[in-house]
Every structure is written in C-alpha cells, then in structure tokens.
Amino acid sequence: MKFNRIILMILDSVGIGEMPDAASFGDTGADTLGHIDEIRGLSVPNMEKLGLGKIHAFKTVAGKQIPGAYATTMRECSPGKDTITGHWEFMGIITRQTFPEYPDGFPEEIMNAFTEKTGYSYLGNKPASGTVIIQELGDEHVRTGKLIVYTSGDSVFQIAADEDVIPLDELYRVCEITRNEIMTGQHEVARIIARPFVKGENGYVRTKNRRDFALEPPYPNALDLLTEAGIKVGAIGKIEDMFLKRGITYSIHSHNNAESCRDILKLMEGEIDSGFIFANLVDFDMLYGHRRNVQGYGDSLEAFDKELEKYMNKHLHDDDLLILTADHGCDPSFRGTDHTRERVPLLMYSPGLKANAVLKERSCFTDIAATVLDNFGISHSLPGESFLGELT
C-alpha cells in the first residue's frame, strides 16, 4: 500500500529520554515527556491510542494501541540538538559538524562588525530568555534606539526591537546584513532571528512578526526531490524558514500550535489533495520548554491531543498517513534553559491500516525522508532506511 498523503507534524522539543551520547552535551537524565508525566501527569488519550505508552515507562499514560497505529522512538545522527539540525535531518541531511554557539555572548570583533555594517549600537550580547531580556532592556532600547542582541544554547543570533522604534522592514534588513555579511565562516550560526515586540499593558510582549534567516541546506533534500517529481509539498509554521522556501509548493507561516493545527487542515481540505505536508508546532519549545514551565508544557500537550482527535476521527482518509515526532528535547524540569539531547517519539497512524505494532527504534531522523520518498516512488541517494514496508 502506498499513501496518497503523508502529514508530518513536528512537536517541537517533545523528547522522550536521553540519547546514548547525552553526557557529552551535559544532558544526562533529560526526559521531556517522562518528567512532565512524573511531575504533573499527562492526559493524552489520543497519543495513548497511537502507542505512546508502549514506547516509554509512564505513570499516567497507558500502554494502549488501536488498529492502524505504529509506534517507536528515533535517535538523531547529527551531533547537535538544535532546530535546523533536526529539521534538515528529517529531510535527509546529516550535519557532520555542530553549528557555533556562544555561551558567553558574541566576540568583540563580531559586535564591532555588527555596529559598523548595520549602523546600530546594541544592548545585551549575552545568552538570555527572549521574554526576559526585552523586559530588562526594553526601556533603554526605546530611549536610545540601540538593538537588543542575544543568543541561547541554540546556534542563533537574535535581534529584538520594538516595532514602534524600528520598523519591521528595517529590522529584517539588519538581520539580512547579519546573515550575509557578519555571521559567516567560523561564525556561521544556524539562524539569525528577528524578534519584534511592542509595549503591552504589563510590559513588553513579542509579536507574531518573528522571522528566521537560516542557512541554506547544503545539498538537495527530500523536499527538493518531491517537488522536482511533481509531488505537492505543503509547509506549515517555520518550515519555510528552515529550508529557505526551497522544495515547497504551498506555505502558511502560522505562529503557534492553534494556528498550525488550523492551517494543516486548511491545506488538507484545499491545495494538498495528494502529496506531503510538513508542519512544525512551536509552542511546546518556545513557550514552555525554554521557560522551564512544566505545567504549561503539559497543558499544551493536552490541548494538542484534543486537536489530534479531530484528525484521527474526521479528517484523515484511509490512504493518509499521519506521522508525529519531534526535533530534539527541551526538558522543562532540567537545569538551564537550553534544548536537551534526547530520543524522540515516532507515532504513526492511518485509518486504512488494520494492524498495529511497536517497531524497532530508528537509528536516524533521515529514515523519515527515506520513507516519504519511498512512498512516492522517488529514487534517491540520501541517507536513511525506509520503514514503509513495516507499516503496509
């Protein structure tokens, strides 16, 4: 059996326990889903039906699995735990070297170049939570016009500005200069991120106008091969930024989980009557993982699980395949505010399948690319092992 459509949802940062090499990342003991389950419990009956409780020892998630559901875990091959690395690997790109990170802020030569080339002075230049640093430095930014620059445990150069002080087009221009003229060579970070904000009733709040300026994928990936073969590809959320819109037929830049779930259905009921939909659901990571909010993370998982029921019971056709997975961990009970090096769940469901199973653990995220390409009959030389035959 081949599927008419494959819908891949990335539950951003929803890890399921430490990788074998977690110690080298300082992440021994990290377990995003496991610790949320232990601390607050989880009521996720639909993910439970897909076999979530069969691939990990949970206290509050039962080991159930309905017909048509397949479950396992996946390891990441690339030596990283950032967004770009994970998403590229899903589409067949293994990143051999980690992107540079700046735990002490950016070096003086970088910031001197930033001031010279963009024409702006800066505030911050340190690792920080985006929501915290705009409260800390927002007033000074508004008074002086200096841009707020910060980073994190991810390979990112983030630039924050009040939209009433620095217009969006100007902020994006500064980010493009930073991407193309400053953060190059040994300083080639994975993403430059525009972080606009405004003054709210209770302080400064970020707006929906975030924009990521990512590196270009180093070689053709599964998205390129799909579109070259005439297969429709839909992208939801920040997927278009991760791949610079390459290999994408239709894109909706949704900003949160609710919008992403809405826009996936929009594509399913509209342009993507057959083909591949690739979606990122960002709230788990952005709102709760980095902020180490266990309760909020669990609430968000439970809210998504209710949305999932709509797909399983109404919107999926017999020849559709839904795949749920994650790009890394971000254990909200762990120390620090960074991503965590974890395995990820791999939950799959199609109403047209009548069996169910717990599959062997996948050794690389590239198995997703291999499976999607196998399904659409596209030959390739990308790494990865298709698991299509194990489903059908």
Can you put this structure into words, describing what you see?
The protein is an alpha/beta fold. It folds into two domains: 5-97 and 215-391, Alkaline Phosphatase, subunit A (3-Layer(aba) Sandwich), CATH 3.40.720.10; 108-214, Phosphopentomutase (Alpha-Beta Plaits, 2-Layer Sandwich). The chain is 33% helix and 20% strand. The chain has an eight-stranded mixed β-sheet. Strands 3, 4, 5, 6, 7 and 8 form a six-stranded mixed β-sheet that branches. Strand 4 and strand 5 (156-162) form a beta hairpin. The model has no long low-confidence stretch (mean pLDDT 96).
In short:
The chain has 392 residues and is an alpha/beta fold. The protein has helices at 32-39, 45-49, 83-90, 108-118, 130-144, 168-182, 222-228, 239-242, 257-268, 283-289, 294-315, 366-375, 388-391, and strands at 5-11, 69-74, 122-127, 147-151, 156-162, 191-200, 203-206, 211-214, 233-236, 250-252, 275-281, 320-325, 344-349, 357-358.
Overall body shape: globular
Instruction: Output the structural class.
Output: alpha/beta
The CATH topology assignment of the largest domain is: Alkaline Phosphatase, subunit A
**Lateral strand order in the biggest sheet:** 10-9-11-1-12-13-2-14
**Count of individual domains:** 2
Element string (H = helix, E = strand): EHHEHHEHEEHEEEHEHEHEHHEEEHH
* Rg estimate, integer Å: 21 Å
> Could you describe the largest sheet, including whether it forms a barrel?
8 strands, mixed
Low-confidence runs: none
Percent of residues in helices comes to 25-40%
